[in-house]
Design brief:
- It is a single chain.
- The chain is α/β, with parallel strands linked by helices.
- The chain is 27% helix and 19% strand.
- It has a six-stranded mixed sheet. Strands 8-9-12-14-13 form a five-stranded mixed sheet, with no helix packed on it.
- Helix 6 packs across helix 8 and helix 7 (160-168) crosses helix 8.
């Protein structure tokens, strides 16, 4: 059986508490459980105060056979940031997507070789896991993207050229596939449409509920943003593009990425978002999966600095 754990973002102390709460014990191979295995849904670096310890915990568990892990967009950005092209750094002027990596780099000051070793290890991690009865992806299970990745990235360590390509050509089929799996689907608004959210901001796009059909729904009903609300009026039909919708009878899918501070975490009987790790709310969440075909809120386990919640 498995315990799926959402974004950790450098919160090693909270991760240890969560693992203990889930019944794991510290061993020579890291934290281990006699009957269960952890699965980390990506984004275990950046933001938090204990990034180095966090990577060590997760890597030791995976290499010891006590856990599985997949890549999140933060790990991918870290790999890209440290790539070179013809001996010249690939990233010359980092944009906002790369700002978070500087906290990780600072915490590895004096341990640069260790960090480079972790980056090589990250390239051995998959972009998703299909366990048969359930699936794990960082942001969005998009079957066309899954099929493309399966057919075009060899098993084992992901080649550096893949990461170079998705940075230089984000709209290529490879780029769109990987970024969809790790960053989700954004609803793009046309230039002549202006909507104001409850923060007084006019967003040009918003993170959408990729498992829902947008026809007949409002902007707010299709939004999976965690920091603001959108207008409650129906999305005009001309703005709706064809998109893959996750079937209601498909296996359970676990993912992170969306910073759902107060949930809901079980969104539908087969949809579960396990990211509650946000800047001002330091907490982690996991799901104890025991073979069920439909999600059960009673299987959520949450740890925070204030209190432990199951």
């Amino acid at each position: 059986m498995y315990d799926i754990i959402g974004d950790v973002h450098g919160h090693a102390t909270l991760l240890k508490k969560l693992l203990l709460k889930l019944g794991y014990k510290k061993s020579r191979e890291g934290y281990a459980h006699a009957e269960r295995k952890a699965i980390f849904a990506g984004d275990f670096i950046n933001r938090g105060p204990e990034i180095k310890k966090t990577i060590r915990i997760i890597r030791s568990m995976t290499e010891g056979g006590n856990a599985l892990a997949i890549l999140g967009n933060h790990e991918i950005n870290a790999i890209i940031y440290n790539l070179r092209f013809k001996k010249i750094p690939l990233i010359k002027n980092p944009n906002k997507n790369f700002l978070a990596i500087f906290k990780t780099i600072r915490q590895f000051s004096g341990s640069e070789e260790e960090f480079l070793g972790h980056l090589k290890w990250m390239r051995t991690l998959p972009l998703f896991l299909d366990m048969g009865d359930f699936r794990v992806v960082h942001a969005c299970w998009h079957q066309p993207a899954i099929d493309y990745v399966k057919g075009n990235i060899p098993e084992g360590k992901i080649p550096k050229d893949v990461f170079r390509d998705i940075y230089k050509n984000p709209k290529s089929e490879m780029g769109q596939s990987i970024w969809t799996l790790t960053k989700g689907v954004d609803f793009q608004l046309p230039g002549d449409l202006k909507i104001i959210n409850n923060k007084g901001v006019a967003p040009r796009s918003f993170r959408m509920r990729w498992w829902e059909k947008p026809e007949g729904k409002t902007f707010e009903e299709m939004s999976f943003e965690s920091k603001y609300s959108l207008p409650h009026y129906t999305i005009p039909g001309q703005l709706i593009a064809g998109n893959y919708v996750y079937p209601e009878d498909a296996p359970i899918v676990f993912f992170g990425h969306y910073s759902r501070e107060n949930g809901p975490f079980v969104v539908k009987p087969n949809i579960c978002c396990l990211d509650s790790c946000v800047y001002n709310n330091d907490k982690l969440i996991g799901y104890r999966w025991g073979g069920e075909k439909m999600l059960n809120n009673d299987n959520l386990v949450q740890i925070s600095k204030q209190k432990n919640t199951t």
